[in-house]
Amino acid sequence: MSPLASVGRGTVMHERHAPARNRFVYGLFMLCLPLSRLDELRLPILGINRFNIFSFQERDHGARDGSPLLPWIRDLLGRHGLAEVADGEVVIQTLPRLFGHVFNPVSFWYCLDRAGELRAVLAEVSNTFGGHHNYLIAHADGRAICDDDVLCARKVFHVSPFFPVRGEYRFRFSQRAGCLGVALDYLDGGMPMLSTRLTLRPRPLDTRALLAVWVRSPMLTLGVVARIHWQALRLCLLKVPFLGAKLQVAPAGKGS
């Protein structure tokens, strides 16, 4: 994960394996922003903690009160014994606000050491009912996370009303051939239920790059919510059982 600001364009794939099969692939783009350098970002169409065509608001993440994100994640890493190994840059990979609107199903915080090695990842998950939960993922001994290492987290937060709150997630992260990859598999009782693949090809963050991705996806953030509800309708038509939703906001934690 480069400590330089970038915008990544790519695809996200979801494949549900049970109780009914359903697969879709959508294009998207995400920002990758080093938290120590937010104040250095000066682009005409990108606002940091202010409105613009594109904007990144610290109040959308972390404590969600507008406070600086870097001290917040440093404190979280310290409380889980990771401060000494994840002592370098922290890069957040997230959807930006477009004209003030955003919904982020998941944002990833890549926590590096001073040599640039990946040591921990915070998966910041949101559902459409207003809930949030943080899964802090790292090896038990704090060693570097290598391409395709499998890291597990127990599911404790309700995302889809078509899945129960049980089972586990298996995460894999990779950076090869100029692409960033996230593979996420959800298993219940050892049985694969859902596979998600996110692939992004980053390029340096500048006005031209932002305009290029905007032309391709001018209504991305509104489209994310619309596509979630469209896929929910498809599952209803497939007669997948609706299990309801827990609307409470889950506390931050490792999720394991």
Please explain how this structure is put together:
It comes from Uliginosibacterium silvisoli. InterPro entries: DUF1365 (IPR010775). This is DUF1365 domain-containing protein. Pfam families: DUF1365. The two termini are 24 Å apart. Helices cover 15% and strands 38% of the residues. The strands form two sheets. The protein has a ten-stranded antiparallel β-sheet with strand order 9-8-7-5-2-1-13-12-11-10. The chain has a three-stranded mixed β-sheet with strand order 3-4-6, with no helix packed on it. It is an alpha+beta fold and 256 residues long. It has helices at residues 69-79, 207-216, 220-237; strands spanning 6-16, 22-34, 46-48, 54-56, 90-94, 97-98, 106-112, 118-126, 132-137, 151-154, 168-176, 179-188, 191-204. The model is unreliable at 246-256 (pLDDT under 50).
Key terms:
13 strands, 15% helix, alpha+beta, DUF1365 domain-containing protein, DUF1365, 3 helices, 3-stranded mixed beta sheet
The major β-sheet equals:
10 strands, antiparallel
Cα end-to-end separation? 24 Å
Strand content: 35-45%
> What structural category arises from helix and sheet content?
alpha+beta
Largest sheet: spatial strand order: 9-8-7-5-2-1-13-12-11-10
Pfam family, one: DUF1365
Protein name: DUF1365 domain-containing protein
Organism: Uliginosibacterium silvisoli
Topology overview:
Elements lengths: L5 E11 L5 E13 L11 E3 L5 E3 L12 H11 L10 E5 L2 E2 L7 E7 L5 E9 L5 E6 L13 E4 L13 E9 L2 E10 L2 E14 L2 H10 L3 H18 L19
Parallel strand pairs: 3-4
Antiparallel strand pairs: 1-2, 1-13, 2-5, 4-6, 5-7, 7-8, 8-9, 10-11, 11-12, 12-13
